[in-house]
Structures are given as C-alpha cells and as structure tokens.
Amino acid sequence: MAKKRPQTKGKQQPQLTEGEIPVVGAREPCPCGSGRRYKACHGRAASHAVTELVRRPFEGLPGECDWVALRELVPAATVALTLKDGLPEGVPSVTLATVLPMAWPALRREDGSVLLGLQNETASGDISRDLADTLLRALDAEPGTPVRARRAPADGPRLQDLLDPEGPFEPVVHTGFEFWVPDAENATPEVSASLERANAAAIPTVRLTGVDSAYWCETPEKNHLRWVMPHAEERLLDALARLHAAGTSSLGEGTRLVGSFRAHGLTVPVWDLPSGVGADDVEKPAAEFAERLAAVLDSDAPLTPEERRARGGLTNRQVTLS
C-alpha cells in the first residue's frame, strides 16, 4: 500500500481587521483570509447594507425637510454644515451643495474647504451613511482634489454621527452654480462646460421665508409651490383632504392643490400657480394655509364621504421620488 503523505498546514493568511477588508467580487476569496468566498463572509454585511432601504435617511438632522427638498427638488443651493467635533485643522469650512461639477460626490478645494454633493447616486440604501463616508474622505483628501464614489462600509458612521444636532441648517438658494468655483473665469474647460450645462438646466427656485421648507419654482407653462412637510403621511393626507373638500386648500385665486410627492419618508404637497404668481405673492397665502392645516391636523373625526373622495384624488396623484 502506498504510504500516506503527511498532512501539512498551509501558510496561514494574515488576518485583517474589519476596517482593512476591501470590497471584492462576490465569488472571490474573502480578503480576511477565512478561506470562504466574499459573499459568504464579509460580503454579507456589505450586501445587506446595499439592499436595506432607510426610509427616512435624514431623520434627526436639523432641517430634515430642507435636506429632502435639496436632495430632490432644488437645483442650486448651499448650506454651511456644523460638525460635532469642530472643523479639522486645515479645513476652514464644510458646505453642503445640491450638486457639484462633473457630478463629483465631494470636492476639497485648494484652500482646504470641503464641498459635499447631495444629488448623487448612492451605493447603498442609506443615503446618510453614504454621504458621511464621502464627507470623511473629503476631510482627509488633498486640497484641490475631488472625492470619487465608492461603497461605504456597512458599519460606518452616518451624518447623524458627524453633524452637530444643534447646529443651524439654513439653505441659500442660488440662481446658478457659480458657487462651484471662486473664480469662474479661470476654471478648467471641463468645469466651465459643466457649469454652463448646469446653469442652462436650472429651474428658477425661491425658498419662502414665512413658512418652513416651501419652495416656489418657475416653469415655462405655470409656476409651482412644493412644500416638504414633517407630519406623518396618513394624518397629513387626512388633513389635506378635509381642507380640499371644504374648498380651503388653495393658495389664492387661480391656484390649486394638485397632489403630492413622497420623498425620503416625507410628504411634499404641490400647488399649481398661475405663471404671473411669484414667490412673494404666495408668502402670505402660504402662512394662512399653515394655520388652516394646523387646525385640522389633530382631528380624529372620521372623514366624510366628500373628504374621502378628496383624499382618494390626492392619493391617486401622489408620486414617489425615492
């Protein structure tokens, strides 16, 4: 009989810590050295993070409704962000921007300041975690360089872990994207071309001052008011239906509540406005509507047949953005 060969132990792979394990193909050996495929090892957590949808990713942040508006509705806006631990050395400011040139997720400027883009495709179901990962990498990036997209670690921090919960969130709406570069005349040809395209596509938008998170916008045929509201969806729809059935859901002559968006766990009622109605014209009507809405939001009375029909119409005209 042939002799059995002595069993020898293979060279043990060095074990990596969680933070060091890179993302590889699902069927490739896991870089941690376990001998299993990535999808059956550390890829499980990454896969779960990709598929798990966080319904309200901006919940708990100052200005949640404005986060939603800037993510989905507003073309050009910026907001100064306040970090929990203060600004790192060499970083004079951190600014959230609706979109950045070349669709960069973030940019570390020559002066060390950071611009974080909000309207970008994200790799997981948690926008907050993806943005937090981008922000951390931007803080460490070399000045004058953009930050590229990547899949955030499944156990990485979220914006709620990085931003000061007591910090202000005050969006500044711009008519164009000149805020991208301090000196637009000396921008690179690529950035200049991106700036020109973005400015041409931007819809004129104004944030109302008398109520929170309401944005007027101008389109060729008619104007609109899009108002992101923090109330629970079912209760808000009931309240809107009560006002609609009573004939008190408009913002004045020629205006009409036409439906709503659903975005990142919040509801965004939308009004059609005549083309001659500007942002200033709806400031007072919007404030008066807010008072009417507050008066019926807490009502637990059953909806009347007319109110149920009004609610059904509003629900049928609801569009989900996220």
Strand arrangement within the widest β-sheet reads: 5-3-4-2-1-6
The helix content, as a percent range, equals: 25-40%
The total of helices stands at 8
Largest sheet: 6 strands, mixed
- What is the N-to-C order of secondary-structure elements (H for helix, E for strand)? HHEEEEHEHEHEEEHEEHHE
Q: What is the number of independent domains? A: 2
User: Per the principal axes of the C-alpha atoms, what is the gross shape?
Assistant: globular
Approximate strand percentage? 15-25%
Question: Number of DSSP strands?
Answer: 12
Stretches with pLDDT under 50, minimum 5 residues: 1-14
Which structural class do the helices and strands define?
A: alpha+beta
- What gap, in angstroms, lies between the N and C termini? 69 Å
Mean pLDDT, to the nearest integer, reads 89
Radius of gyration: 25 Å
Pfam families: DUF5926 (PF19348), SEC-C (PF02810)
Region (Disordered): 1-24, 144-165, 300-322
Domain DUF5926: 57-321
Organism: Streptomyces alfalfae
Write the layout of secondary structure elements.
Blueprint: H1 43-51, H2 64-72, E1 77-80, E2 94-97, E3 106-108, E4 114-117, H3 127-140, E5 145-147, H4 159-162, E6 172-173, H5 189-201, E7 205-207, E8 214-218, E9 223-227, H6 233-245, E10 256-263, E11 266-273, H7 279-297, H8 305-316, E12 318-320
Parallel strand pairs: 2-4, 10-12
Antiparallel strand pairs: 1-2, 1-6, 3-4, 3-5, 7-8, 8-9, 9-11, 10-11
Helix pairs in contact: 6-7, 6-8
